[in-house]
Amino acid sequence: MTRYIVLRVLLAAGVLWAAYTVTFAILYIIPGDPVSAMLAGGLDNGAVSAERLEELRDAYGFNDPLPLQYASHLWAAVQGDLGTSVQTGQPVSTAVGQVLLPTVELSAAALVIALVLGGGIALVATYTHSAWLREALLGIPPVAVSLPTFWIGLLLIQWFSFQWGIFPAMGDDGIRSLVLPALTLGLPISALVAQVLAKSLQEAALDPYVTTTRAKGISRLQVHLGHVLRNATLPSLTMVGLIAGNLLAGSVIVETVFSRPGLGQLTVQAVTLQDLPVVQGVVLFGAVVFIAANLIVDLLLPLADPRVTVGRSYA
Amino acid sequence: MTQIAAPSALKPELPGTDPSEPRPEPATLQTVPGRPDRGGRERSPAQGQAGRTRRWLRRPGLLLSALFLLLVLTAAFAPGVLAPGDPYTGDSSQALQPPGTAHWFGTDHLGRDLYTRVVHGTSLSLRTALIAVVIALISGGIFGVAAGFLGGWIDQAIMRVVDVLLAIPSLLLSLALISALGFGSTNVAIAVALGSVATFARIARSQSLRVCQSTFVEASRSLGSRWHTTLRRHVLPNAAGPILALAVLEFGMAILAVSALSFLGYGAPRPAPEWGSLVSEGRNYMAAAGWLTTLPGLVIAATVLSINRLAHALGGERRRF
C-alpha cells in the first residue's frame, strides 16, 4: 500500500514536471525572442530602444544558453517562484493567488449545479420504464456539449437580466450575481456527468446483485439509489480530474462573458498582453489542479472500494 | 472478477484507449467490420434506391443535419450564392434593424446585414477549424500509429507525452500557444490543433494496436511481408475508419474551440466576420439588439450539432451511449 502511494505521488510529480517542460517549450522557445513578443503585446509598441531590449533580455536571462535558462527557471519554479508579471511587476504566484477565490466560488457553485443536474438526468433516465422519457433525457447531453459556452451565457443574460430582470448581468453583489455564471459553467459539465454516470449506471444495473436484492423484497427505487448508484459512482470518479480541468478552462470564457474578476479574466488579460510568465503560471495551475484531482481520487479509491487493484496504474 | 481499473488521466468517453482493458467498452466510434447494423438500424434486404430513401426518411434528424451541412458547405465555398451582398459595407440609416424580410438576421450597429456576414464568415470559421483538425489528425495519427505499430520504448515515450498533453486543459494549452505565436486565424488553428493532438494519438494508437494483434496481420507477417507493406496494406486501412469518425467529431469540437477563441478576440482581426467575433461584436448591443448575439450563436450550435449527428452515424452508433 505504501509502495502504491509513493508510486502514485512520484508519477504525479513526474507528470507535473513534464507539464512544466511543455509550457516552457511553448512559451519560451517557440516565440524565438520572448522579450519582443511580450513587448509587442504591451502598450508602447515599438517605442523600446535596442539597448533597452538587450537589457531586458539580460534581466530575464534570455541571453543564457537554453538548457541553463530551463534549469534556472525550473529550479525557481520548484521553490514556488514562477517569475514576475511583465505588465504589473507582481510575482506570478501572487497574481494567481489574488484572483483565485472568486474562481473557486464560481467553480464550486457550477460543480453543484453540474452534479445535481447531470446526476438527476442520469438517475431518472436509467430508472424510468418509459422508453420515451429515457430517450428524451439521454438526448439532452449530446446537444448540451454542442452549444458554445459563451452563447449559453449570453442567452441567459438576455433572458434573465434584460427581459425578466431576475438576475444581474454582471457585477459582484453576492449570491445573486453568481447564479447565471455558475449555470453557464455548470451546464456543459452536467452533460459530461450525465453521460458518464448514465453509462455506468446502465452497466451496474445489469449486475446480478440487483436481481438478488430485488428478490429479497427491496423496492426498485431503494436498489437504484442505495446499491446501483453507489457501485456506479466509483468508476465515474475517474472523471473528477477532467471536470476540474473543464471548470478551470470554462471559467476563462464565463468570466469574460460576465465580466467577473477571477483566474479566467487574468488569463485573458495575460494572453491579450502576451504576459508570458502569467500565462505559464495559469496553465501550470490548470495542470496542477488536474493532476492533484486525479491523484486524490487514485489515493482514495482503494479505501472506498477494496476491489480496486493497486498494481495497474498509469499517469 | 470485477476489476475496476485504477483511475488515471483517461478521458472517459473515448473508447478502446487501452487495449488491455478488462471489459471493452461499448465503443462509441469503433466500427466492427461486417457488423450488420452499421447505420444504427437494421438494414433492409432491398438495398435499392427506394430502400435507401426510406432509410433516410426514417431518420429525420440525420436528414435534417445533412441538409443543413449542405447549406453550410455552400456558404463556405460559394457565399455569393446564398448572400449576394457585401459583408463589410453597411447602410448606417439601416443600423440595428431587427430580423425581418429585408434583413433575415437583422443588421448590426453599422447597418451591415448580419445574415450576409454570417454566410461570408462561414468559410473563415470552417477553414480554421478544418486546418486545426487536419494538423491534429496528421500529427496525432503519425505519433499514435508509430506508438501502436512499433511498440516498446517508443510507444512508452510517445504515450507519456500524450498523457502530459491531456493533463493540461486543452483551452489553456491553446491559449499558451496563442500567447507565444500571436493572434490570427492560422495561429488559432495551430493552437486548437495542439489541444486535440493527444486525443488523435490515443485513438490512432489503440486502433493500430488492435489491427497489429489480429490474426491476419500475424499471417501476413509470417508470409514474410515487409513492415511497410503491413503498415500500408493492413494497419492503415483498418485503423482509418474509427480515426476518421473521430476526426468528424473533432471537427465539430474544433468549430466550438475556434469560435470561443475568436470570441475572446484572438482570431482574425476585427472586420472579418468570423462566427465567434460576430457574437462578441453583438455583445455590446445585447439589450437593444439581442439577435446580434443569438443568431450567429445559433448558427454555430446548429452546425456543431449537425456535425456531431453525422459523426455518430458514421461511427456506426445511433447515439453516444
Tell me what the structure shows.
The complex is a heterodimer of chains A (315) and B (321). Chain A is an all-alpha fold and 315 residues long. Helix content of chain A is 75%, strand content 0%. The relative contact order of chain A is 0.14. Chain B starts with 48 loop residues before the first helix and ends in a 7-residue tail after the last helix. Chain B has 321 residues and is an all-alpha fold.
Secondary-structure map with pairings?
The complex is a heterodimer of chains A (315) and B (321).
Chain A: H1 2-29, H2 34-41, H3 50-60, H4 66-78, H5 92-98, H6 100-127, H7 131-144, H8 149-163, H9 176-204, H10 208-215, H11 220-236, H12 240-257, H13 263-272, H14 276-304
Helix pairs in contact in A: 1-14, 5-14, 6-7, 6-9, 6-12, 7-9, 8-9, 8-12, 9-11, 9-12, 12-13, 12-14, 13-14
Chain B: H1 49-57, H2 60-77, H3 79-82, H4 114-150, H5 152-167, H6 170-181, H7 185-212, H8 215-222, H9 227-263, H10 275-282, H11 291-314
CATH architecture of chain B: Orthogonal Bundle
Order of helix and strand elements from N to C terminus of chain B = HHHHHHHHHHH
Chain pair with largest interface: A-B, 81 and 60 residues
Helix content of chain A: over 70%
- Radius of gyration of chain A over alpha carbons? 24 Å
Radius of gyration of chain B: 23 Å
Oligomer: heterodimer
Number of helical segments with 4 or more residues of chain B: 11
- Envelope shape of chain B: globular
Bulk shape of chain A: flat
Order of helices and strands of chain A: HHHHHHHHHHHHHH
Extract low-pLDDT stretches of chain A: none
Number of DSSP strand runs of chain A: 0
- Report the sheet-strand fraction of chain A: under 5%
When the domains of chain B are counted, the total is 1
Major sheet description of chain B: none
Gap between N and C termini of chain B: 24 Å
Membrane topology (chain B): Multi-pass membrane protein
Family (chain B): Belongs to the binding-protein-dependent transport system permease family.
InterPro entries (chain B): BP-dependent_transpt_permease (IPR050366), MetI-like (IPR000515), MetI-like_sf (IPR035906)
Keywords (chain B): Cell membrane, Membrane, Transmembrane, Transmembrane helix, Transport
